[in-house]
Each structure stands twice: as structure tokens, then as C-alpha cells.
Amino acid sequence: MTHPADDERAALARRLEDAQRRLAELLLAQRLEPLLRTTLTVPQLRALAVLQLDGETSSHRLAEVLGISPATLSGIVDRLEAAGMAARRPDPQDGRVRLVAATPRGAAAVRRIAAQEDEPLTDLLDRLDVADLRALTVGIEALTQVAETSVTDVPADTPTAPED
């Protein structure tokens, strides 16, 4: 026979898992919204992402990083330039080489899609009343503490990775 406290514990754990799953789906939907609204193609977004990470680079190098031909890259950069999201200029050391860079507008597009400047969780926490926020904080801190204890309580007979 199970104890009533065990039944309640199991029911609460199921509710918590369901709520966590629903919250994760809602936060994912919020993060995906900018991607669904963009008119950028995947190759254009990839090119802007590389330019955002690496900064100005040669067309040849950008094509190489993206794994596409220079001719294909040329069309992608043409469209990004027309949209004001990328700019080309001659390399001052070698006039035959064209350098490509994201413009502020292109960099902002990448941030909107990838980094999402508005943090949805912070917005949600700001909407909770203090009592709910306090209860949530206590609960998450308790869960974190149990997780930390679980990590340090690894049984001695647990196999470990071989040393190099």
C-alpha cells in the first residue's frame, strides 16, 4: 500500500514535468517567431552569421566557409547588398580581392533571429507577483541543490572515462 504523501509527491512531480514541458514549448515558439518572420533565405542567413562571427572577410574565404562556389556566393551577396544587409569593397592590399562585411542592418537581422534581444523568461518573471516569484525561486533553488548533491554523490563503482 502506498502512503498518501508518496501519491501526492508523484502527482506533483507529474504536474511539474507537464508544466516544464509546456513552458519549454512556449519559450521555443517565442524564439522561433523571428525566424518565421524573416524574408532571408537560409543561405543568406548563414552568410550573415559567418560575417557576424568572423567580421569582414574575402568573398573566396566566405564561399569556402559556407561550402559553396564563389559564383553561388556572388548571387547571395548581391541580394544581401540590395537589401542593405551586406557591403562589398576592394581589398586595399590586393585590388583583385573583394571583401564582404555585414552592415549594421545585416548584423541587427542576425541578432533578432539568433540572439533574440528580448529575453522571454525575464519578461514572464516580471509579470509574476512577488509571492509566486518567491515560491518559484525557493522551488528552483531546492531542485538545483538536489541536482548538485546528485552530481557529487556518484557511487564508487560507477565506471569513469579512461585517462589519456
How would you describe the overall organization of this protein?
The radius of gyration is 25 Å and the shape is elongated. A 3-stranded antiparallel β-sheet has the order 1-3-2. Among the domains are: 42-115, Winged helix-like DNA-binding domain superfamily/Winged helix DNA-binding domain (Arc Repressor Mutant, subunit A), CATH 1.10.10.10; 119-150. The model has no long low-confidence stretch (mean pLDDT 88). Helices cover 68% and strands 7% of the residues. With 164 residues, the chain is mainly alpha-helical.
Task: Set down the secondary structure blueprint.
Layout: H1 4-37, H2 42-54, E1 57-58, H3 59-66, H4 70-82, E2 86-90, E3 98-102, H5 104-115, H6 120-127, H7 130-152
Antiparallel strand pairs: 1-3, 2-3
Oligomer: single chain
Strands, total number = 3
Order of helices and strands: HHEHHEEHHH
> What does the radius of gyration come to?
25 Å
Class derived from helix and strand content: mainly alpha
CATH class of one domain: Mainly Alpha
- The named CATH superfamily of one domain: Winged helix-like DNA-binding domain superfamily/Winged helix DNA-binding domain
Mean pLDDT across every amino acid position = 88
Report strand %: 5-15%
Low-confidence stretches: none
